[in-house]
Amino acid sequence: MGAKDQDDRRVRKTKRALRDGLAEIMVTKDIRNITVRELTDKVDIHRATFYAHYKDIYDLYEQMENAVAAELNDLIIQNYEQPATYFYKVIFEYILENKQLCRMLFSTNGEGSFAVRLNDLFEEKCIETWCKDWKHSEIGEELTYHVRYHVQGCLAIISKWVNSGFAYPADKLVEIISDIDRNMEYAVMKKQKK
């Protein structure tokens, strides 16, 4: 293994420690009350090392948010046309694999932009899929309201689950959201045919 590989691995390990540390602190503390010193002391990394990678706590948070949003975007694009149960299972598995990070992003201690980004992403894919399924070439105002209601409800369930410390079984929530999803699609489809 070359020196560059070791450096890259060291950088990844440092960044992972900083991300994990921030996620852990943010579960109980608002981002604007977290200092670089607090974070670097927690993860036992020198402050200069932090500043070699990030401008400030907000920069670290934004990069974490961007990474999760990109990963979820890829999962959604790859799986949105799958049956609802399969789609939500993939989403819930991702969240479980990234518990601490998702707790941070879904908590009320962040900046709130993650929920908006996720909502926009889900709405876009929902509209795209429903229009395709029902062969609509244009998006009606009524459809956008149905989509907003649907997506907000699904995200509220996911957020509640994450903020409860994943207390409720994921497979049961997948069933609940899938049932809601099917009922919602049926109601919208029925309404669209009138």
From TrEMBL:
GO terms for molecular function: DNA binding. Residues 12-72 form the HTH tetR-type domain. Residues 35-54 bind DNA. PROSITE patterns: HTH_TETR_2 (PS50977). The keyword DNA-binding applies. InterPro entries: Homeodomain-like_sf, HTH-type_Tx_Regulator, HTH_TetR, TetR_C_Firmicutes. Gene3D superfamilies: Tetracycline Repressor, domain 2. Keywords: DNA-binding. This is TetR family transcriptional regulator.
